[in-house]
Structure formats: C-alpha cells, structure tokens
Amino acid sequence: LGSAWVLPHPGAPQAVGRMMMRDEEVERIAMEAVMAFERKAGWDPLDVHEENRGYDILSRHPETGLERAIEVKGCGGVDAVCLTRHEHETARKLGRDYWLYVVYNCHTRPEIHRIQDPARLPLEPVRVIERWRVRPETVHRHTEEGV
C-alpha cells in the first residue's frame, strides 16, 4: 500500500509544486525585509539560517532581553508555505517564542505577515516521496537476459 503526490510542472501557472521549489532570490529578499522590519521595531536580529536551528533569525530586544525565534518564508506572489518537520518540531517546543514571518510579493513589494506560535494553526500535512520501491516480482519480470 502506498501513496503518491502527482504535481503539475512547477513552472506551470498556479502549480501546487511551486511552494516546494527553492528560489534563492525570493529567500534573500524575504530575509532582508524581515531583518529590516525587526531593526525598525527596535529588536536586534541575528541571521542564523545556516545553523540548522529550526528557524532563520534569532531576534533579541535590547531593553527587555526577550528573544523570538523567527522562521522566514518568502513567496514571489501569494502562495502556501510549508514548514519542514524540524521547523514544526521547533515551533511546538518554543511555543509563543517562535514566530512565522511569511513575506508575500517578494518580486514586487514585500508584504510581511507575522504569526506567533504557528504550531497552533490548523496545519495540513504534506507528503513528499523520498523513495521508490521495486518489488522482487517486478525485478524478475523486467530483468534483461543475455548479460
């Protein structure tokens, strides 16, 4: 018993698979927008996205010492975003100290939407195929002779 998620080509208009595609330029714009937003709000953001913490920015308030872990998701337009398993687990663990900043319209005019404690949202699980299985009977049926 198995399942598969069949998607249209990611470049197709309204393709569901777009949300799974990485766009370095969109990510850069989203990170810059969020870092600027945090600074303007009086926080000291630190880019930690390469440290595999389960979030992209650790932002501290210099007066109160409060910290917030911020996961940044950028979109060229307006689309669904996905949290990885690690991001979701980190969000559940940190609760109200974890923030999801979704940045829409990165290609035109970035628009930041902030959600505190996103693990409480009605999230939809997304299944992604990681492996394909070939059963022994299939191997036998399709084996080339004469090697």
Q: Describe the biggest sheet?
A: 5 strands, mixed
Task: Tell me the total number of β-strands.
Answer: 5
Instruction: Give the helix/strand class.
Output: alpha+beta
Average the pLDDT over all residues and give the rounded result.
Answer: 88
N- and C-termini, Cα separation: 33 Å
**Radius of gyration based on Cα positions:** 20 Å
Using the alpha-carbon principal axes, give the shape: elongated
Uncertain regions spanning at least 5 consecutive residues: 12-19
Please provide the ordered H/E string of secondary-structure elements: HEEEHEEH
Helix proportion range: 10-25%
Number of helices: 3
Instruction: Give the spatial strand order of the biggest sheet.
Output: 1-2-3-4-5
Share of residues in strands? 15-25%
Give an account of the 3D structure.
Helices cover 23% and strands 20% of the residues. With 147 residues, the protein is an alpha+beta fold. It has a five-stranded mixed beta sheet with strand order 1-2-3-4-5, with helices on both faces. Strand 3, helix 2 and strand 4 (98-104) form a beta-alpha-beta unit. The two termini are 33 Å apart.
